[in-house]
Amino acid sequence: MKKLFLGLLLLSGQALAAPTMTLSTQTPQIGEQMQIIFEDTQSIEQVPDLSALQAHFVVRGQQSAFNTSIINGVQSQSHRLILSVFPKEVGTFSIGPFEINQTQLPAQTVTVSEQAAVPVASADTSDAAQQTGTESLFQVEAQIEPEEIYIGETALYSVRFTENIGLTQAQVEMPADENFTFTLFGDDKMGRTLVQNQPARFFERDFLLTPKQSGDFTVPPAAVIGYLPDKNFKSSRLGFPDLFGQDPFFDAAFGLPQKEVYRQSQPIRLTVLPKPDDWKGWWLPSRNVTLSETYQWPQTVKVGQPIERRVRLQASGVEGHQLPLLVQSAGQGLKVYANPDQRGQMTTADGLTGYEEMTFVLVPTESGKMTIPEIKVSWFNTKEKKRETAFLPAKEITVEADSQGGVMQTQNQTPPADTPSDSVKPKESIPAQNQTPEPIQSTLSPTVRYFLIGGFGFLFLLICVGSGLYLSRRRRKNKAVSLQVAEKNEKSSRSHKKPLPDLYPF
Question: How far apart are CA 187 and CA 117, in angstroms?
Answer without folding.
Answer: 31
